[in-house]
TrEMBL record, chain A:
Subcellular locations according to the entry: Membrane
Subunit record text: The main subunits of complex b-c1 are: cytochrome b, cytochrome c1 and the Rieske protein.
Residue ranges annotated for the Cytochrome b/b6 N-terminal region profile domain, each copy included: 13-224
Gene3D superfamilies, A to Z: Cytochrome Bc1 Complex, Chain C (1.20.810.10)
Entry function: Component of the ubiquinol-cytochrome c reductase complex (complex III or cytochrome b-c1 complex), which is a respiratory chain that generates an electrochemical potential coupled to ATP synthesis.
Name this polypeptide is given: Cytochrome b
Entry's cofactor comment: Binds 2 heme groups non-covalently.
Transmembrane parts of this sequence: 42-69, 90-111, 126-148, 160-181, 193-215, 246-263, 305-324, 336-354, 366-389
From TrEMBL, chain B:
Source species taxonomy: Bacteria, Pseudomonadati, Pseudomonadota, Alphaproteobacteria, Hyphomicrobiales
Domain Rieske: 85-184
First-level EC class: translocase
Family: Belongs to the Rieske iron-sulfur protein family.
Name of the protein: Ubiquinol-cytochrome c reductase iron-sulfur subunit
Function noted in UniProt: Component of the ubiquinol-cytochrome c reductase complex (complex III or cytochrome b-c1 complex), which is a respiratory chain that generates an electrochemical potential coupled to ATP synthesis.
Keyword Disulfide bond set for record: yes
Transmembrane segments: 14-35
CDD domains per record: Rieske_cytochrome_bc1 (cd03470)
Species: Kaistia dalseonensis
Cofactor binding, per record: Binds 1 [2Fe-2S] cluster per subunit.
Cofactor: [2Fe-2S] cluster
Catalytic activity: a quinol + 2 Fe(III)-[cytochrome c](out) = a quinone + 2 Fe(II)-[cytochrome c](out) + 2 H(+)(out)
Domain of life from the UniProt record: Bacteria
Length: 422, 186
């Protein structure tokens, strides 16, 4: 998607095809010879892991639909049928359900990596915004997918989340009835969630293509945050990064399989194995773990509309990060103060996640209020001011210098005609 | 280029704008069915009513019935519950409106306006939290009324919001007494 294609097929059939649809050249320039910074660490393998997880979720999801019945009176039993009767149904469902959690683990690591290394800064703002759109679509998909088994948590999660829209002044109630297609969450709601749950992953795939396109214009950021200046700063995507990504993926899959085979219900809720009952709310409603920090923010505000605004604001503020961070230095490795605030922020985000799972009473409420204030303080006050006051450490002259040291870089820089290793 | 601004619109300009306008109207006309299909259909809108025999509900007991997919609680309140609800000053209420489907929209949230007319022990209410739609648990919480386990909203013995994130009192549905022991909801 960037640079001039050096793809030159020898096979006459491929030559004929390439002249009519140059897709081979596109793949070759994007994923074979694409120049990546030579110093990428394993935090950079999560993009590839996420692409794999999207494909895995679509594959297992399409197969599960072959056995699932989207009806309020049949859905729960059809999921039990998948678990007990369908050949390997238990495996497919556990892969899909745990796959959603693994998808979110990977995306949160991917986002925090971007925050640490300043990957959202000029010229990658659009890349970051596209990533945030994918994150939003993922949350919508995850939420609607969790409704489909029609257990107690499905039903009451759907009720609570759709009721968020009733906080909108004047038209809120109408919007909620429109979302439900009735006066409560019922069959009409289940059917439309099923339809959208099937649609949204393909929309995610579309935005992923834009995300990769926007990545391949400036190329990847790197741990130093210093831009690529020379060909010696990069290595071709294949084999160096295909192998690195594959190794990262295999390690990730071990964790995934550990959950699927040994702790398949660890990240779910026992209440969801009770069929939905519109007359009884479970004693303790908790969303899926990946929503918990935002749920904690929602609950910390003692006003319905205020809580909803803060929860959506917590996501909206992420979109604005490229313009809130005033520092010109990308990588936190060279920003001694930001590095500390970054880790405080990580702790605050995890803390909010813990508080989101705790009951809404006493000290938990006070703690989530403090952390909610800090969450916004980090983005709206610390990020803009830090860029003005912080004295960054000296940056390396180039990526190569950061890898090989000053002397080696000087040698190669002084010999521009040195043969390239390629 | 001040001159170009003075050029008379041509027939081509007219056709261009007229075509665009018709296209926009046509698009809106096609979009509407795609939006409206999500609204409740006639079968859901048909205001289903439920008749309930309340003769067997003793003082201090409640019965929950399903109406429009939502739980409606019918409670025969104790004398203490009634007096507690009556004694609460209106100035202490978070939501001073009765939210009673049988009364005008601006009726104040006195206990008389919340309970059944002339039968202050009988109390009928849509048992759905006005925060995010969970079902509050009866005879619990600080006011021994209702307590929502989801986000901690506290209601009194007349279903009025006293503490927590919920913005409104729980709704009173349209209902009527058919006889002393039978009510019709809806």
């Amino acid at each position: 998607m960037a640079g001039h294609s050096t793809y030159n097929p020898q096979n006459p059939l491929l030559k004929w095809f390439e002249a009519r649809l140059p897709i081979g050249g596109l793949i070759h320039s994007s994923f074979i010879v694409f120049p990546n910074p030579r110093n990428l660490n394993y935090w950079w393998t999560f993009g590839g892991i996420l692409a794999f997880m999207l494909v895995a979720q679509i594959a297992t999801g399409v197969v599960l639909v072959m056995h699932y019945t989207p009806h309020a009176s049949l859905a729960f039993n059809s999921v039990e049928g998948i678990m007990r009767d369908v050949n390997y149904g238990w495996l497919l469902r556990y892969l899909h359900a745990n796959g959603a959690s693994m998808f979110f683990i990977a995306v949160y690591i991917h986002i925090f990596r971007g925050l640490y290394y300043g990957s959202y800064k000029n010229p990658r703002e659009v890349l970051w915004v596209l990533g945030m759109i994918i994150f939003l679509l993922m949350m919508a998909t995850g939420f609607m997918g969790y409704v489909l088994p029609w257990g107690q948590m499905s039903f009451w999660g759907a009720t609570v989340i759709t009721n968020l829209f009733s906080a909108i002044p004047l038209v809120g109630e109408k919007i909620v009835i429109w979302l439900w297609g009735g006066f409560s969450v019922d069959n009409a709601t289940l059917n439309r969630f099923f339809s959208l749950h099937y649609l949204l992953p393909f929309m995610i795939a579309g935005v992923v293509i834009l995300h990769i396109w926007a990545l391949h214009i400036p190329g990847s950021n790197n741990p130093t945050g210093v831009s690529v200046k020379d060909k010696q700063d990069t290595l071709p995507f294949h084999p160096y990064f295909t192998v690195k990504d594959a190794f990262g993926l295999v390690c990730f899959l071990i964790l995934y399989c550990w959950f699927v085979f040994y702790l398949p219900n660890y990240m779910g809720h026992a209440d969801n194995y009770i069929e939905a009952n519109p007359l009884v709310t479970p004693a303790h409603i908790v969303p899926e773990w990946y929503f918990l920090p935002f749920y904690a923010i929602l609950r910390s505000i003692p006003s319905k509309l205020g809580g909803v605004i803060c929860m959506f604001g917590a996501i909206a503020v992420l979109f604005a990060v490229p313009w809130l961070d005033t520092s010109k230095v990308r990588s936190a490795n060279f920003r001694p103060l930001y590095r500390q605030f970054f880790w405080i922020f990580v702790a605050v985000a995890i803390g909010l996640g813990y508080l989101g799972s705790a009951p809404p009473e006493g000290g938990y409420v006070i703690a989530s209020r403090i952390l909610t204030v800090y969450y916004f303080f980090h983005f709206l006050v610390i990020l803009p001011l830090l860029g003005l006051f912080e004295k960054p450490l000296p940056l390396p002259a180039s990526i190569t210098e950061s890898v090989l040291g000053k002397g080696a870089a000087a040698v190669t820089a002084g010999a521009p005609s040195a043969p390239q290793t390629k | 280029m001040a001159q170009s601004a003075a050029v008379e619109p041509t027939r081509r300009d007219f056709l261009y704008i007229a075509t665009g306008a018709v296209g926009a109207v046509g698009l809106a006309a096609v979009v509407w069915p795609f939006i409206d299909q999500m609204n409740p259909d006639a079968s859901a809108l048909a205001l289903a009513s439920t008749e309930v025999d309340i003769g067997s509900i003793q003082t201090g007991e409640s019965v929950t019935v399903k109406w429009r997919g939502k739980p409606v609680v019918i409670r025969n309140r104790t004398a203490e519950e009634v007096s507690a609800a009556k004694d609460a000053p209106l100035s202490e209420l978070k939501d001073p409106i009765a939210r009673n489907g049988n009364l005008p929209a601006d009726a104040p949230a006195t206990d008389a306006n919340r309970a059944a007319t002339g039968k202050e022990n009988w109390f009928v209410m849509v048992n759905v939290c006005t925060h995010l739609g969970c079902i509050p648990l009866g005879q619990q919480g600080e006011y021994s009324g209702w307590f929502c386990p989801c986000h901690g909203s506290v209601y009194d013995t007349a279903g009025r919001i006293r503490k927590g994130p919920a913005p409104e009192n729980m709704a009173i549905p349209v209902y009527s007494f058919l006889s002393d022991t039978k009510i019709k909801i809806g």
